[in-house]
Amino acid sequence: MLLAAPNSVKMQSFHDLCAADRTKRVLAFRVIRFVLATALLLVLAACGKSRPRADLVFINGAEPESIDPAIVTDQVGMRIASALFEGLCRIDEAGKPQPGMAERWEMTPDRKTYTFHLRPNATWSDGQPFTTHDFIYSWKRVLSPEFGADYASQLYVIKNARAFHEGTLKDFAQVGVTALDDRTLRVELENPTPYFIDLCAFTTFSPVPQRIVEQHGTAWIKPGVLIGNGSYTLEDWLLDDRIVLRRNERYWDAANVPMKSIDILPISEPNTAINYFLTGQADLIMDKGMVPTSLTAKLKEQPYFHTGPFLGSYFTRFNVNRAPFTDPKIRLAFSLAIDRKRVTEKITQLGERNAFSLTPPGAGQNYQPPPGPEFNPERARELLAAAGYPGGKGFPRVEYLYFPKPVERNIAVELQAMWQEHLGVSVDLVKQEWKIYLSSMKEKNYHLCRSSWVGDYNDPGTFLEMFLSTSGNNRTGWASPKYDEFIAAAAREPDLNQRNTLFQQAEKLLVTDEAVILPIYHYVGVQFYHADRLTGVQPNMIDDHPFRCMRWKK
Hints:
Elements: H1 7-17, H2 22-47, E1 56-59, H3 75-84, E2 89-91, E3 97-99, E4 102-107, E5 113-118, H4 132-143, H5 161-166, E6 177-181, E7 184-188, H6 196-199, H7 210-216, E8 232-238, E9 242-247, E10 261-265, H8 270-278, E11 284-285, H9 296-299, E12 305-318, H10 328-336, H11 340-348, E13 353-354, H12 377-386, E14 398-402, H13 406-423, E15 427-431, H14 434-442, E16 448-454, H15 461-464, H16 481-492, H17 496-513, E17 517-528, E18 534-535, E19 551-552
Parallel strand pairs: 1-10, 1-11, 14-15, 14-16
Antiparallel strand pairs: 2-3, 4-5, 5-7, 6-7, 8-9, 9-10, 12-16, 12-17, 13-17, 18-19
Helix pairs in contact: 1-2, 10-12, 11-13, 16-17
């Protein structure tokens, strides 16, 4: 099994990245010197350890906030949680839902009731029987008002789920989830939901072991305690060092999971990550923020650099409860003052599409987002003056929150410069580590905040439902009954064209009329891997790449 090329080959490839001119040659020399030093340290460290190299070493970009499937909301944590736990369905390498813990299902003609049949060989990783009651416990846990799951609204498609989560319904037996027996689960929906099977593969819908959760409380996700039903088990978790996954030999499809062990490294600094990859210390990077801006043009030419469009958007949130962004005129002025091309052409450089909407191209069947605020600095200044700050005079200092990656820093500086140039206002930049940044955003401890969203399924609702007044992922303080009704009406609407119209009305209210967010660009996915050696990594519309699909070529 070939895991890495000789270092000399890799050094030459990195040198080629920067050989275009003298400046780049100097940069190459410095980076090569750093790589050699890094490699030497790694070799010396290895001499003192007998720990074997994992079958796959993956750089995840940050330390996960959680790996509890009922809690996690970000890609960093979901990549791990989806390896440890599996729902009724699972995602394949093309990003499509396939049978998971359920081997088959039937749907009634009205498309509102599903009957799932669990696999007879499905067990927990400790060998204990797995039953339909595990799903009922887990979904009730997510929907319990006191639990506070940010993604609880994902389950609102189930009959009476929203009423139970909001506390107006106390009896969970009235929620549309019934165990007909230990192997047969019936799910009743509020309305026909074309993406329900996609949801059944989503992390929040995964089961957790009741006996372990209740015995250990919040410590149930620790190594040696955690029990899962996914393709991998949690062998070790060394904070700020690595998470070690081991193939779950009791997984129903273990025979088709090639990688026996996976090391997941929480490296957030792009140059360090690239060095690990080029020296063979890592096999795979799947993170849009791991592309050093200074090397983007050359990296795009390399055979190990892969991109593809997917359902993801980069935007700025406003805290509408914190002055001066309580005024929608000011929020819209900030949006109109941004020339998005300066970000995508100067900084990201990966062919991203400038965003004037939250939903990216390709989200759902025939959905076209409404036109949003484009670059118009004159109109922006008019709005700011109408709000009482002509030329930016008297405007209070505000803060823009982001987390520490060079591309994030560069984008923050560019936005800061445009707001100063076109509005005459000063914006301070505040950098926080990933977990603290997530906490600040959740607690709405910010003025403006760097944000992004990756679609959980291919439908406009996966983006627009985020800003429901009841959504734990809203995190702006904005609540609009009118917006909520647009989204609710879209969920009830069987006609596709009318459903899209309702979504368009909601998105216009969010992005233009109320300017709760400031769209900047739509993502392209980025993966670093050697396709002539590693297979099972394929660009797809939801940017989901299960470890169980990956294998080394012989």
